[in-house]
Amino acid sequence: MEKTGRPEKEWLSERSVNLSTLVLLLEAMLAYVVSLVYGVTQESPNAGVGAGMSIIFLPVLAVFAAVIAGALTVLLVLPTAWLSEVLGRRFGGREAWWVPVAAGAVSVVIVAGAVARAGNSGTGALALGWSLTTAALSVPALLWRSRRERIFKPVILWGVAAIVLTAVLGGVGLATGVLKEYRPPALTSADIVGRWSDGQGGTVTFTADGRVAAVDLDDDLGGWGPEDDATGPEGTDTRCTGQGTWTYEPGGNRQAQEVDMSIEWCGFAPWNVGGTDSRPTLYQYIGDPDSWDLYVLRRTDGSP
């Protein structure tokens, strides 16, 4: 049977798209597990709370992730596979050898654009983002032209095995103390007493008798300041200066600790406890809590 000699184009098929989408989904699940383990070890607001909520909405997230993976297949993996084929033909090498090169080239554009948009010029973040993106694109691009029968089964098997192994190793690391789980410091009322600063000229001083004095604290945190309810003098000043009372609520666990501060003309929500045992902090969310944009107070001395 006569052959045209033209490279077979079956790799540009529904099978290839489905295989790439599957690999991207498995990679996303692996990245999710890694992010959960890593997040547990990092100082963060409401540490350990978000994981449970994410699991509850996992079915919805899975559907959303499948749509995103399909889009990434068309927008990123397909160009990577095509570019590796072009480079392979141009330089007479194996197309598979050029996949990481092509993935790296595509990654540079993606990561550089993301870093420029975020305004982050850190070389470490850029290198890490480029490396991870390159690796993530290389795997589905290498499998793109595979004509192996029943390839979906081994891909699922090895992918799930990698995810489970990562989760088990992460759990063992946390259980044995090799990975240190972050927990806010367990404070008492006596630990709150003293002078705290926001680092921008605002201070608050808590006394042992339950009194508090604030000077130039930012009271415009997106829903709590006098600018929202216009109850302060003239309804325009977004800095809080005054005296009042405070209480410490230990809550049921370390994440539930709160410091409630009541000052006339100031509309603060209860302050959350963060930081470390040696350097505790009090913080509130600025705007949407999901943004993790925080207004933080740090203790500047001991008891007054």
UniProtKB/TrEMBL annotation:
Top-rank lineage group of the source organism: Bacteria
Transmembrane segments: 21-41, 53-84, 96-116, 122-143, 155-179
This protein's UniProt keywords: Membrane, Transmembrane, Transmembrane helix
Designated name of the protein: Sulfite exporter TauE/SafE family protein
Organism: Streptomyces parvus
